[in-house]
């Protein structure tokens, strides 16, 4: 009598996502994930007298994808035309496999961004791998900003799907922040949309902020091969995310992973909006991130690279009230309010 083959886990992402040898997938519900460190506490995050309103809107009916809009309460009403707020997209990280706008670490950071910078923040979800491999997430990033274009073109407020974007916002001052895999998506948007994002008119994207952007390559950098392991992210984890997110049979030099891979489009003649690139001095991808910024600077792009010494990958969202987080908020604020568009 034959025996049934045992179903075994072949890929495990921190217990939150598991891929089995029969092709089935387990994805933990948000209620099953330990978020003790990131419990939502608006009073402690925003401080006395601060308040941020937020709402969820669907931007892709086909795939049931939502985004979350955040707005400082003090600017919700009676905003004069001359004092309209910029709009900041925040694209979450998670190796293209994990994360959501609803996860407390993402939600809390967006509350802080909106409050500290006094801007509207839009945090979109995107399809996750391995159920939806790249370039699905990049395609969704583009759909999320095109949703804003539809709102900007609308002449009838009643048809707007976001009550927080009805007035007092500047559709010509839009910035995109990408965290980790979100930084990868932000890079691809910068390349696709070009300076001033003419295909999104009347929306204009003025710049990009890449926080520890998740890039890959078949050759190891020094920090990947010899750097000390991070508390929650090592080389095995990086490789696992790429195995699960890249098209089947492709390696880390695929254009979705490596901006300078052998089959990636040349960036030499590509015009880009200003880009701020941020890395932690102790993060495993530090050398790859720095190399990305260095190459773009060599090609004549408007690139600013800032390295926070002693910090690991994702340091900005681990402790919102730390000195280093305050420094990063100041850096991002300066970039947003002083950047001159390149179009």
Automatic annotation (TrEMBL):
Source taxonomy: Eukaryota, Viridiplantae, Streptophyta, Embryophyta, Tracheophyta
GO molecular function: hydrolase activity
Transmembrane segments: none
Family: Belongs to the 'GDXG' lipolytic enzyme family.
PANTHER family xref list: ARYLACETAMIDE DEACETYLASE (PTHR23024), CARBOXYLESTERASE 15-RELATED (PTHR23024:SF406)
Identification of the protein by name: Alpha/beta hydrolase fold-3 domain-containing protein
Domain annotation Alpha/beta hydrolase fold-3: ranges: 89-316
Gene3D superfamilies linked: alpha/beta hydrolase
Domain of life (superkingdom): Eukaryota
Pfam families: Abhydrolase_3
């Amino acid at each position: 009598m034959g025996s049934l083959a045992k179903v075994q886990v072949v890929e495990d992402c921190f217990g939150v996502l598991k891929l089995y040898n029969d092709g089935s997938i387990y994805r933990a519900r948000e209620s099953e994930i330990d978020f003790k460190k990131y419990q939502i506490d608006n009073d402690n995050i925003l401080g006395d007298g601060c308040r941020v309103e937020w709402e969820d809107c669907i931007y892709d009916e086909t795939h049931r994808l939502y985004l979350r809009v955040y707005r400082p309460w003090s600017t919700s009403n009676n905003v004069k035309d001359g004092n309209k707020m910029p709009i900041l997209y925040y694209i979450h990280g998670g190796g293209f496999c994990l994360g959501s706008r609803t996860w407390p670490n993402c939600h809390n950071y967006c509350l802080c961004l909106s409050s500290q910078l006094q801007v509207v923040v839009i945090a979109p979800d995107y399809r996750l791998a391995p159920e939806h491999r790249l370039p699905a997430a990049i395609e969704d990033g583009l759909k999320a900003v095109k949703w804003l274009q539809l709102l900007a073109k609308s002449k009838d407020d009643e048809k707007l799907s976001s009550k927080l974007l009805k007035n007092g916002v500047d559709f010509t001052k839009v910035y995109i922040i990408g965290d980790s895999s979100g930084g990868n998506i932000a890079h691809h948007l910068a390349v696709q949309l070009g300076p001033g994002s003419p295909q999104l008119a009347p929306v204009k994207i003025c710049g990009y902020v890449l926080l520890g952007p998740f890039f890959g390559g078949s050759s190891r950098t020094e920090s990947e091969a010899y750097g000390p392991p991070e508390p929650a992210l090592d080389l095995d984890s990086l490789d696992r995310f790429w195995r699960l997110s890249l098209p089947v049979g492709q390696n880390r030099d695929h254009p979705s992973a490596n901006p300078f891979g052998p089959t990636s489009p040349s960036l030499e003649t590509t015009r880009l909006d200003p880009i701020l690139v941020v890395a932690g001095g102790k993060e495993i991808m530090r050398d790859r991130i720095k190399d990305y910024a260095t190459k773009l600077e060599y090609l004549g792009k408007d690139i600013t690279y800032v390295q926070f010494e002693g910090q690991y990958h994702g340091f900005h969202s681990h402790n919102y009230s730390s000195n280093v987080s305050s420094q990063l908020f100041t850096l991002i604020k300066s970039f947003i309010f002083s950047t001159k568009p390149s179009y």
